[in-house]
């Protein structure tokens, strides 16, 4: 009999097949626009090797996983002109000090709990907001899958990879607030064997712009129409030894805490679902690693002053498992620019974040 499991508010899936050999069929019962990430789709075991479906980084070196992918329904090719011409979608978000505190705890703040520097992340009377909170403000709406429902974008979620993230902060984010967000497809690039969508979300309040957040989304199999290839995300390797190197442990339960800020993809919590996706256990959210890294840079090189951060960009280069340790290397490339590379210590410094830059005042 097929197993049937509740996916934490994301609907149900039905799996035919053994745990040893993986699923022969996986069917979700939910609308694609309601799913966060690309972890829920319909497919069959192909016997080939696969890239994972949450962060692009998980694709690198992941050639021991069985692929589960056939098109969801009958998606049409991306219509770049239609996607770019579509008007923005607007909505409202709100957040409180508790949302900020929960996010900070989810990225590892508060250790040690009584450290005055950590209390700036956890105690409401001293609270400041790490700019990467913007990625989860309002529970992360509209999110990647919201962008994938834009006009001209009709893609198979099983082919979607979160390739990178770029955040520009226009002024410090208030501890509590509300904002209007506008989201649109800002660019569509033809990489030959894949398309790259840049999903842009801009947020502002009565006082003006707050942040601009770009998610770079790879859609495998959608390239080749002869369009603009776009800029390369790869940067030259930093020269010399890093100016600072720190290590940050990932708690075994960190993904369970981080997901409470809005990303409920079961890939990060449900061992059975993680196994179906090709992992032996749940993986950490890429945006959790993103937040942990920015906090390390702010605490180490910016004297803990998160208000100095102006922009932050990265390329997801590999997965992190809860319980591992991040090695974060930092180079001061200029008075206002830090290059960063992040690796998983326990897996021989396997790359996690690459081409990472923090610009600051």
What is the H/E string?
EEEEEHEHHHEEEEEHHHEEEE
Roughly what fraction of the amino acids lie in strands? 25-35%
| Helical segment count | 7
In terms of structural class, how would the helical and strand content be classed? alpha+beta
State the strand order across the main sheet. Answer: 6-8-9-10-7-12-15-14-13-11
Low-confidence stretches: 1-74
Radius of gyration: 20 Å
Q: What percent of the residues sit in helical stretches (DSSP H or I)?
A: 10-25%
| Number of strand elements | 15
Instruction: Determine the N-to-C terminus distance.
Output: 60 Å
| Shape label | globular
| Biggest pleated-sheet summary | 10 strands, antiparallel
Mean pLDDT: 80
Relevant terms:
single chain; 361 residues; alpha+beta; ten-stranded antiparallel sheet; three-stranded antiparallel sheet; 35% strand; disordered N terminus
Q: What is this structure, in a nutshell?
A:
This protein has 361 residues and is of the alpha+beta class.
Give a description of the structure.
The protein has 361 residues and is α+β, with helices and mostly antiparallel strands. Helices cover 15% and strands 35% of the residues. It contains 7 helices and 15 strands. The strands form 3 sheets. The chain has a 10-stranded antiparallel β-sheet with strand order 6-8-9-10-7-12-15-14-13-11. A 3-stranded antiparallel β-sheet has the order 1-2-3, with no helix packed on it. A hairpin with a 5-residue loop joins strand 14 (337-344) and strand 15 (350-360). The chain is globular. It starts with a strand and ends with a strand. Mean pLDDT is 80; it is low at 1-74.
